[in-house]
Amino acid sequence: MRLNLKIWRQANAATSGRLVDYVADHVSPDMSFLEMLDVVNEGLIKKGEDAIAFDSDCREGICGMCSLVVNGIPHGPDRGTTVCQLHMRRFKDGDTITIEPWRAKAFPVVKDLVVDRSAFDRIITAGGYISVNTGGAPDGNTIPIPKNIVEAAMDSAACIGCGACVAACKNASAHLFMSAKISHLSLLPQGKIERYRRVVAMIEQADTEGFGSCSNEGECEAVCPKEIPISNIARMTREYMRAMWIGAK
Ligand code: SF4
Ligand code: FES
Q1: 97 near 5, Cβ under 8 Å?
Q2: Tell me, what's the pLDDT at 99?
Q3: Could you tell me if the CB of 211 is within 6 A of ligand 1?
Q4: Which tens digit of pLDDT belongs to each residue from 28-57?
Q5: How far is ligand 1, taken at its centre, from the CA of residue 176, in Å?
């Protein structure tokens, strides 16, 4: 396939960026989207030009590093799929593909398609952990927990912290990300001890970072590669209301 690419190029956060046209030739339908970009970069390097900066690590949908908006959709057109697992067979010969970085005030562009997502790390540092001694895995396995609760906690733990939910949201809200972490931890007995302090600390940190609020439109759920349900946000709101009620700090 021969594809026309419009790729966001930006030297750093202090400069303005723009879409630059490239042609990707001899693209195999079996290539992943990131492999296609690797080939484009090899061509640029051979010509002595600056390679396009983009993030990736596992390329298996696990780490949450890949972060491209493809034709206006974070992670591209396939539901429940990270952009590293998107394949070129999804496109047709002659297609034009626009590739941009996540866009949110709290995720400043580092270079080209790479954004700084350390705001998520600071939210986790604020409260996304269990600090009481919970013992080892055998101790955890001896605690009887209803199956539906275990499964809901595990489904929430599937969040890979990619930030697509923020990129899709018109308010740049981090609610889906935070609610997945809060659900994962507060549903289990080991996480209940700090549940109210946790929800307050994480939401306060998200406000400090400049993430917006939630207006319940579900764009986050639609693009989440791990299909984290928006019902987690309702759970987070209930946790927050209870925390406010008891005056948790
Ligand atoms: S909730 Fe989904 S979209 Fe948001 S950070 Fe987690 S995995 Fe990514
Ligand atoms: S590179 Fe790890 S999830 Fe895409």
Answers
A1: yes
A2: 98
A3: no
A4: 999 999 999 999 999 999 999 999 999 999
A5: 7
Nearest Cα residue to 201 out of 151, 248, 149, 143: 248
Atom of ligand 2 nearest to the CA of 64: 3
Task: Give the tokens for residue 151.
Answer: 């499964």
Least confident of 107-121, 125-139, 171-185: 125-139
For residue 46, what are the CA distances in angstroms to 35, 40, 41, 53, 170?
17, 10, 9, 16, 39
Ligand 1 in contact with 162 (CB < 6 A)?
yes
> CA distances (Å), 124 to each of 69, 108, 164, 204, 210, in order?
24, 18, 17, 12, 15
Gap between the Cα atoms of 211 and 213, Å rounded: 7
Q: Pocket residues for ligand 2 (CB within 6 Å)? A: 56-59, 61-66, 82, 84, 160
Taking Cα atoms as reference points, which of 180, 192, 199 lies closest to residue 238?
Answer: 199
Torsions phi, psi of 22, nearest 5?
-135, 155
Say how far apart CA 177 and CA 164 lie, in whole Å. 9
